Amino acid sequence: MDSKQTDRRAGRYLMQTVPSGEGYRAFMPEPLPPSPKLEIDDDLQVLLSQADRVLGRLDGSIETLPHPDLFVMMYVRKEAVLSSQIEGTQSSLQDVLAAEAEVLSPDRPKDVVEVVNYVAAMNHGLARLEALPVSVRLIREIHAELLANVRGSHLTPGEVRTSQNWIGPAGCTLSAAAFVPPPPHEIGPCLSNLEKFLHTDSKLPLLLKVGLVHAQFETIHPFLDGNGRVGRLLITFLLCEREVLQKPVLYLSYYFKKHRQEYYDCLQSVRDNGTWEEWLKFFLRGVIEVSKQASETARRILSLREAHRQIITENFSRSAANGHRLLDHLYTQPIITVKNAQDATGASYKPANDLVNRMTELGILYEITGHARNRKFKYEDYVSLFDDG
Question: Which residues does the entry assign to the active site, renumbered to this chain (predicted)?
Fold first, then answer.
């Protein structure tokens, strides 16, 4: 490594020891912004312009939906699944929807509660943004929601760590870890510097600032568990706080999962070589790819809703109005019972049951229990738009 590369390190390694006397190197990041300054070359500028453009298009496409908040609810569930899968959970989007609808199955992964917690953490953070800026306090609140009563709940939810953690293969020791974040006594100053950067006005384009914050947070790794999920949530919170997005519909977990090794390699190269620009190019490519996917999903939802509204209008005669009410309800709750249909339409049991049966005959709903009683029905065509990755 030449002197120029050494000067561009994003921090320095500190020699530490554990009580047994084992030595290890912990990384101490320099405060943001990077020094020397970012080199915004033509490639980075082009990616930044593209990302700004597709984000604007995404924001506009969500507003064209009849019920944009319903899309957001489903999209948050998808993000919860993908982000949790990166951390090793096995639950799928189907499992989460089934859990919300209380469809109990002995084959359902036990870690589905972790994904449900992620949805709660996202919703908590978005609600708090109305009164509290993105800050260490908010980050700790999100973390507490994330780990409440699940695997890792013994690892001080909402509290920064007071012991050393590390990243590496299962069973590896500190000295053999792929990466060791700052020692516990440095976490407070590191987070304070990060918060200062968040609240400092600068001429740095927002997307670049968000990319820097995510990488720095993952490097600090302030919690004993849940750092990756909190770091990914931060991306969306920052974009919503700065009103780049009116709705929380940009989630990079799909992209990070798809390119997992490159993601880890880019972050480690920042620490070792100060290659912030390469990390930001990777980050912006993710923003572009995921924004295009979300915009396409919104377009397909519009087409699906119009097609099913037409089927209902042509086949339900006098019950068409209730059919449309139930269809709209399915965008909130894609797995339902006849009782749910009653509540959504205000109809008594028999008309609601007839409505559900007719929707099933026409291929809008699918019965998923196989039982004659306590049946549950899924809006499969809608769920399938999100159930990838």
Answer: 221
Question: For 310-333, how does the pLDDT look when each residue is reduced to its tens digit (9 = 90+)?
Answer: 999 999 988 999 999 999 999 888
Q: For residue 251, is it left (φ>0), alpha (ψ between -120 and 50) or beta? A: beta
As annotated, the binding site for ATP includes 87, 221, 225-232, 263-264
Structure tokens at 120: 């709660």
Binding residues: 87, 221, 225-232, 263-264
The helix (run of H) or strand (run of E) holding residue 71 is helix 68-86
Q: pTM of the prediction?
A: 0.86
- Catalytic site positions: 221
Is the separation of the CB atoms in 375 and 367 below 8 Å? yes
In a domain, 10, yes or no: no
Taking the C-alpha atoms of residue 148 and residue 100, their distance in angstroms, rounded to an integer, is 17
Same structural domain for residues 71 and 133?
yes
Q: CA dist 364 to 30, 67, 327, 346, Å? A: 55, 19, 9, 20
The verdict on 290 and 339 lying in the same domain is no
